[in-house]
């Protein structure tokens, strides 16, 4: 099953979605929509009780009331990229030389014209206040609940988050952790670096929206569509982009627009699409 019955995708692929935006088929002409604020958010984290930590860097663009985001490898964004986005229209940024800029611009535009509302299929999921680990685990449960997989199934996890692996373990699901950075999981398991090479031996796919920004998303979507596998996305990157592809290979999305759960200790809200819970 790739999507609940009756859901029609907004677009057939990521590139098709961009074309529809540029053609003005999803909202106002993107040539008339200008980015007023551009910024990056950097964090380093090591949750209490965890042996390792990680770093994040996210490019965010503001269009009116909406913020679109794309994660990048720390230090990968060139000097001047943020300034280059300010005052630019969305159409120009959708043709920018940097893929993360293009993704963030598309996300900002779609957040502006299609915010996360029940009328658009979003189901809000409250995150509790608390420590970074408590919020991370709550988000992980919300994501993993979108998987319709029996115990014993093997899930390819693209973009390793230990709280997600922990939630999969609790459900009795096997997994193949994959991340371009490699390394090991909290439990000493080797992290693979070539996601396409692992697809055939996995029953379902759980992937980060960061795959949009590094160019690895489309092979996952195409494989899921071709083989009828579930593809569940957890999305800080492209939280408004990925719901448009439910039914075109994407099965469900846990969308988390800026500000992200790790920025604040108070309660928050994420939005789930696609799966019948």
TrEMBL record:
Q: Ranges for the Putative heavy-metal chelation domain?
A: 143-252
Q: Which Pfam families match?
A: DUF364
Q: Which InterPro entries match?
A: DUF364
Q: Identify this protein by name.
A: Rossmann-like domain-containing protein
Q: Which organism is it from?
A: Streptomyces eurythermus
């Amino acid at each position: 099953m790739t999507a609940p019955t009756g859901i029609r995708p907004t677009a057939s692929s990521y590139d098709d979605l961009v074309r529809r935006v540029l053609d003005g088929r999803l909202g106002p002409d993107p040539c008339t929509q200008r980015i007023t604020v551009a910024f990056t958010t950097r964090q380093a984290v090591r949750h209490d009780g965890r042996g390792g930590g990680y770093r994040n860097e996210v490019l965010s663009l503001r269009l009116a009331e909406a913020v679109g985001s794309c994660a990048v490898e720390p230090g990968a964004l060139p000097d001047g990229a943020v300034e280059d986005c300010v005052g630019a229209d969305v159409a120009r940024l959708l043709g920018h030389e940097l893929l993360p800029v293009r993704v963030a611009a598309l996300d900002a535009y779609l957040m502006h014209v299609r915010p996360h509302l029940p009328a658009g299929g979003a189901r809000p999921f409250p995150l509790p206040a608390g420590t970074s680990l408590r919020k991370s685990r709550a988000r992980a449960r919300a994501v993993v609940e979108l998987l319709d997989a029996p115990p014993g199934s093997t899930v390819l996890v693209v973009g390793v988050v230990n709280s997600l692996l922990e939630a999969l373990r609790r459900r009795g699901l096997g997994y193949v952790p994959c991340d371009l950075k490699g390394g090991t999981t909290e439990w000493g398991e080797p992290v693979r670096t070539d996601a396409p090479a692992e697809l055939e031996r996995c029953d379902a796919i759980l992937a980060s929206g960061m795959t949009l920004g590094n160019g690895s998303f489309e092979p996952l979507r195409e494989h899921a569509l071709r083989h009828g596998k579930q593809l569940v996305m957890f999305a800080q990157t492209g939280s408004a982009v990925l719901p448009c592809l439910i039914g075109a290979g994407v099965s469900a999305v846990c969308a988390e627009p800026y500000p992200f759960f790790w920025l604040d200790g108070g309660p928050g809200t994420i939005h789930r699409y696609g799966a019948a819970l």
